[in-house]
């Protein structure tokens, strides 16, 4: 493993057609639609990502 962040399916995905993938680094989190990867991803600062996760748990 080279230490680069890798994409993984979000634990909040339902396993059906509503899935997102996430890759996290020390400075940001990237989020993309599993079924539409070619459309790109959203990048958010890690502090915002942590705050978001805190609201969804």
UniProtKB/TrEMBL annotation:
* UniProt xrefs under Pfam families: DUF397
Q: Which domain of life is it from?
A: Bacteria
Question: Which residues does the annotated region (Disordered) include?
Answer: 1-33
According to the entry, every stretch annotated as the DUF397 domain falls at 6-54
According to UniProt, the name of this protein is: DUF397 domain-containing protein
């Amino acid at each position: 493993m080279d230490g680069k962040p890798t994409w993984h399916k979000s634990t909040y995905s339902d396993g059906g057609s509503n899935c997102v993938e996430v890759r996290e680094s020390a400075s940001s989190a990237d989020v993309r639609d599993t079924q539409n990867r070619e459309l790109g991803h959203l990048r958010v600062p890690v502090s915002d990502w942590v705050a978001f996760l805190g609201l969804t748990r």
